[in-house]
Amino acid sequence: MGCCSGRCTLAFICGMQLVSVLERQVIDFLGYQWAPILINFLHIIIVILGLFGTIQFRPRYVTGYAAWLVVWMTWNVFIICFYLEVGDLSRDSDLVLTFNLSMHRSWWMENGPGCRVTPITPPPSWAPEDHRYISISGCLMDFQFIEVAHSSLQILLALMGFIYACYVVKLISEEEDSFDFIGGFDSYGYQGPQKTSHLQLQPMYMSK
């Protein structure tokens, strides 16, 4: 019963992770955030493998999923530090999230709740022709705090998934050990005396 409830809870957590990271993947695609797109894609694959291992009693898959969650939590902590500009980090850097391929920022920067986007015309004389300059006002929450909230949710789900993954691996290992013990008991257990048939030899007389 404990293994079933643990596996069901872990499967539910994996489902929540898939839903939340797919939403995040769409947002990152819209914002051309190439580094998060690649990491999110890898996370989706490993969560699916972890879900498969949970359903099919594959402890190696669940162990690999748990190990990846440590990396995933570390990445999300970095994202939080990046958007909060901890230390020398700057959220205006193009190299970290977009590999310096574009000048795009978070999709939430222009599409956050209550944000009003106003084009600046005419653009500055030094501005490249293929870029538009806008003014953003009225946002109920700054985009960096929305990104921090998303990463915090991912850390929370990953922490819960890691705890339950370790619990499920422990339960599956215990069940495998108990099955091995029962199988060994049946193979080498005590066998009661068996009935044997006795043949009584009778003399035979042949008539001439």
From TrEMBL:
Source organism, top-level taxon: Eukaryota
Transmembrane segments: 34-53, 65-86, 151-169
Location of this chain's protein in the cell: Cell membrane
GO cellular component: plasma membrane
UniProt topology in membrane: Multi-pass membrane protein
Stated family: Belongs to the NKAIN family.
Biological process (GO), any one: regulation of sodium ion transport
Protein name (Swiss-Prot/TrEMBL): Sodium/potassium-transporting ATPase subunit beta-1-interacting protein
Keywords tagged on the record: Cell membrane, Membrane, Transmembrane, Transmembrane helix
UniProt-listed Pfam families: NKAIN
